[in-house]
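ASSEMBLY PREDICTION REQUEST
Request ID: AP-0331
Submitted by: J.K., bench scientist
Number of chains: two
Total residues: 523
Priority: normal
Notes: Please return the full assembly, not individual chains.
Input sequences:
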Amino acid sequence: MEELGNECSLQPIGPYRYQCIIEKEKIRGLAHRLSAMETTFLLLTATDYPDEKKFELTYVFWNHASKSLIIIKTHVNRDSPQIDTISDLFPGATYSEAEAYDLVGVDFIGNPHIKRGIFAPTDVVEKGIFPLRKDSGV
Amino acid sequence: MTFVEIPIGPQHPALHEPILLRLKVDGEEVIDSEISTGYNHRGVEKLLEKNTWIKSIYISSRICGICNAVHMQTYVQGIERLLGIEPPPRANYIRTIVMELERIHSHMLLFAVMAETIGFDTLFMIVMKDRERVMYLKDLVTGNRVHADIHIIGGVKRDIDDSKKEVILKELAYIEQRVKDYKKIMHEDYTFQKRLVNVGYVSRNYALKNSLVGPPARASGIPYDIRALEPYAAYSEIDFRVVTREEGDSWSRMMVRLDEISESIEIIRQALSKLPQGSIALKTIPRVVKQGEYISRVEAPRGELIYHIVSRGGSTPYRVKVRTPSFFNVLNTEKLFIGHKLADVPVILVSFDPCISCMERVLLIEDKDKPRYLTLKQLSRWQPK
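STATUS: Completed
Returned structure:
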């Protein structure tokens, strides 16, 4: 785990589970280090917190060498929800990012599959609703 | 370059669920492929947020008909962690038995579907007839043939007695013999060899980079099995082998599944012999789920299933993110069809065990402004815009 360096200090949150919270600008640097460590991308959750005016992004990776789960949390502003993509470093994340955009509305800069209507039905897309936001009225 | 674009699906005899493959072909060879989804609109993630903790357990098991018990296990296990409780050992063993029965019938179903896809319909019928015995066992243990619904927070609903044990062991002996026959067919049958060997090759590196899980990853030499890596239910007390192969083609993915059936039979036998005495559910459970979150992982028949459950202390979950194995195994393999013959496309797709209902669980089911009520007559005449 030392390879992750100063950018993120992993805190143990359970057996073989580590978590760290970083600023959104650091995600690419961290993904670079992770991709060099035989790590697999597992999950991306976007959660809406309207009262705190932010979206929380939870990236989950599996490290095959240490057999541990690495959970990276970052936050983006609700007014300009943008973050760099990691889909070029982890191709497995491509559709997870596309799903987070289609349903929650977080824009992943550089992901070629970012578009509406991959998962959401057309009538929702036409109205500009992101269904998994808390204020979507769904 | 001239090419022809061929759509396979959304409704197609070779595919059992709605998904659209847009293929560009030059003669018989596929030169580009793209997967279109969105034909199963179900809105489950939103539905889970809108319902109470107890109700949402039953919704979660309806995400998938085939692997419903593992969906329930993942969700219930996550809630139990948030509540800080642990089910009694006997309940854990019964959960394990139900989930392994599910793995057996899921793999048998896929084997039957693969036989049908390559035109071996007789084998399809034979396997489906054998699978019915496993469905009977599931009915015997859980009371339901398809949807087990045996999990409750802090335990299970039904117990296993000695007479049930006897029937399970007897039927498993039969299934074990049949699986040996299936493996023989896989090795010796000309059609299986011709249609599956060296078709849809996935390298170890490709599987790692594209996050493939379950049998597709294990058939490419990655021993990734949550039952062994992060044991849940009673798996930590059971001795079993993680099946892996090195070939990485469609044939090896099917063989991994058949070997896993044999392992599952062994797991059930061990679980039945070790079945601890005691109660099957906790007498009291806390009524309020505290603030917190948990990432719950379970090895479903198709691969790793993850629920990310976020609680803010209310009567309903704040956010539930469901990551099903098919989401990666289907979407991240869309370019694998390139270079293969058009006739190989259904074989490759089936070898990944696509579960479209699992994959597309996240959409809107109701529009508040405009509720839609259609009579049967209107529905029969309904046309998309």
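REVIEWER COMMENTS: The helical segments of chain A are 27-35, 94-103, 122-127.
SIGN-OFF: pending second reviewer
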